[in-house]
Design brief:
Strand order of the largest sheet: 2-3-4-6-8-10-12-14-16-19-22-24-25-26-27
Bound molecules: calcium ion
Distance between the termini: 37 Å
Number of domains: 1
Radius of gyration: 20 Å
Order of helices and strands: EEEEEEEEEEEEEEEEEEEEEEEEEEE
Helix content: under 10%
Shape: elongated
CATH class: Mainly Beta
CATH topology: Pectate Lyase C-like
Strand content: over 45%
Low-confidence stretches: none
Number of strands: 27
Number of helices: 0
Largest sheet: 15 strands, mixed
Structural class: mainly beta
Length: 254
Amino acid sequence: MASSDTLSIFVPDPGTTVTQTTSSGARVLTSQTGDVTNSRVFPNKGRNIDDVGIRESASGDTRTTFSGASKDTSYLGNADDNTVVFTGNARNTTISTGGGDDTLIATDINRGTISLGSGDNSAITGGLKNTTFTAGSGADSFTITGRADSVRISAGTGDDTLIFGGRVSDSTVLLGQGADVLDFSARVQNTWIDLGNDANVDQVSFFSKGDIGSGTQIFGAGDGDLLIIGGEEYTFDTSQTAFISTQGDSITFG
Ligand SMILES: [Ca+2]
Ligand SMILES: [Ca+2]
């Protein structure tokens, strides 16, 4: 369960700081710097933040930092630009940042439900486990530096970029409409990749052929979509339902 008690951020006058306390006892300091409302959530259980929900003010750009490892948290942004930072590992978190160009910066996330809404959003995280990421229209950027296991990422429309720095397993990547770029740095197993069945050229890169592990499938490819394996380029040909290299080698999925 994510937190059921939610603290609404009170926006102070410029140059002043307000302290609020959540019903679970976490202190939240908020100050106004220029046009940005800055909030910092402090631990309430030893070094951990436990059972804390934050709701930003109805409008305005914000930056909120959860200072420490956290569990059972929720975060609700607004239609403006929200930046959310988790300095420690997050377990069981629900994040919804609404419209606007939003940013999520986090270390490992286990059991996350994250919706970045419309706008040009970006997310940089450590490892992900049992986590769902959704973004809407707009050019979104996801960088997952750690291992991804049982993760579902839906990038929505727009020209989206997804970079996986670690191994990927038992996951789903939905690129949607737009010219999307997907880059894997390590082995990918039992993972479904949907290129969105559109006329835009998508690009999927693997570090080596051996990194395309068992159960990994690419769906929704159209003419011209690119598969790059260890620098070698394969282009999708609908008539052959295969990715074909300049040397004539073909790769088929499904
Ligand atoms: Ca927002
Ligand atoms: Ca998008």
